[in-house]
Amino acid sequence: MYHLTSILLLSLLVTAKNCRSATPAPIITNNAVGVTYSAIFPDNSETTIRGYVSGTSASNGTGTNFNVNITGLPDVNTEGPFMYHIHQNRIPANGNCTAAGAHLDPYLRGESPACDASDPSTCQVGDLSGKHGNITATPWKVTYLDDYLSTTPDTVSFFGNLSLVIHARNLTRIACTNFTLGNVSSSSTTTATTTMTTGTGMTGTNTGTAATGTSTRTSSLAGMGRMDMLTVVEGVVGTFVLGGAVIGFLFF
């Protein structure tokens, strides 16, 4: 009975989340001119991935100009295309990419449906590859203006204290690093962040250039009482059910 109740509750939560109306992201118009934050993949014996993603506020204060330069990625034909996003947490000193948490998504857009690059205001703010294209070659060099990311601290779309994660086609987090204040040359001498390849990948599907995927991992409910029951669904929506309390979060 407890098992059935849990499954029904999770189904209702997923349905409610997918049916909600997300708020489109507003265009950022008040960025301080000339501020740059850079996410640099440093030398690391555990991976060949190098390069950086830097964002500099536009000269008119509207949006952020991004410069992407990534090398050393795995074979694009077998593991790509690669997706990359700004995630909501910083990477710890041990380089654990999972600690980055979910995408930067202050307007609660969620993972589904896939990001529509023709209408980027409706995408997750941190979904860089969804809005501007997946990585389909190595080396990968591209520049673009993103109107929805902020270089101003204490704003919900600020990315300067967050992290960048690169995903393989199966959604495995293959590299990650933190943004720091400064351009690439100055940041490279001060950053202490790391890049780390994570373990086994999660199964998923990717559609077009959107960073989408569906991955489900559910812990066993056998032998667990109602007050200590924990079910985790990871992917389009993750949901904890613990002691009758329900907490939802996005995660991959």
What would you say this structure looks like, in words?
Residues 7-20 and 188-252 have low confidence and may be disordered. The protein has 252 residues and is α+β, with helices and mostly antiparallel strands. The protein has four helices and nine strands; from the N terminus they run αβββαβαβββαββ. It has helices spanning 2-19, 76-79, 128-132, 184-187, and strands at 36-41, 50-57, 64-71, 83-87, 140-146, 163-167, 173-181, 235-242, 245-251. Strands 4-6-7-1-2-3-5 form a seven-stranded antiparallel sheet. It has a two-stranded antiparallel ribbon with strand order 8-9. It is globular, with a radius of gyration of 19 Å.
Give the helix/strand layout.
Blueprint: H1 2-19, E1 36-41, E2 50-57, E3 64-71, H2 76-79, E4 83-87, H3 128-132, E5 140-146, E6 163-167, E7 173-181, H4 184-187, E8 235-242, E9 245-251
Antiparallel strand pairs: 1-2, 1-7, 2-3, 3-5, 4-6, 6-7, 8-9
How many distinct helices? 4
Return Rg in Å: 19 Å
Q: How large is the share of residues in beta strands?
A: 25-35%
Task: Describe the strand arrangement of the main beta sheet, using strand numbers.
Answer: 4-6-7-1-2-3-5
Main sheet? 7 strands, antiparallel
- Spatial separation of the terminal alpha carbons: 30 Å
SSE arrangement, N to C: HEEEHEHEEEHEE
- Uncertain stretches: 7-20, 188-252
Helix content: 10-25%
Shape: globular
Strand count = 9
Average predicted confidence as pLDDT = 75
Structural class: alpha+beta
